Amino acid sequence: MKRHAPSAERNREPLLPVLRELLPSRGNVLEVASGTGQHAVFFARAFPELTWQPTDADPDAHQSIEAWRQEEALPNVRSPLSLDASSSIWPVESTDAIVCINMVHISPWEACQGLMRGAARVLPPGGPLILYGAYFIEGRPTAPSNLAFDASLRERNPAWGVRELGAVTQEARAHGLELDRVIDMPSNNFTVVFRPCGGR
């Protein structure tokens, strides 16, 4: 039941120092679209003072997450919850931070809209919503690999695709979230941080 994603192996090490800077020193982290569960156990091991709550909309992903969780036996990783980012109902009422890796481009736009709506509802003032993935950014040259990636995503599902960061930011602001920073990452990816207005 345990699944393995090569991309999770590639991006977890570059993400680790970024998360060390962005995550609170203790509390709860909600991971939206946890996928295989590799990130959940890796980051939970790196942040023992944080409780990691993995979630996914796919029941098959739950089995993989639970398999990783059982194998690692980490006390700060909770059992996976079912969470569809586009839904108006989430299984948690509050969290100190949200991490969402490689979801926005591999999901319909409604999932991004729901993510912003839900994050604004469950995060405290200043709590980070941390996104990782590929984005088109106005004023920056687009790497040929990202154009090819976008085309391949849309071929698989017309509702998918690399998003314009400006559109994502506009959606965030519509729900009371402000863009905090954009961090360049390897392989033409970015870490993008939003926070509820009124605190940092």
From TrEMBL:
InterPro entries: DUF938, SAM-dependent_MTases_sf. Pfam families: DUF938. SUPFAM superfamilies: S-adenosyl-L-methionine-dependent methyltransferases. Coiled coil: none annotated. This is DUF938 domain-containing protein. The lineage of its organism: Bacteria, Pseudomonadati, Myxococcota, Myxococcia, Myxococcales.
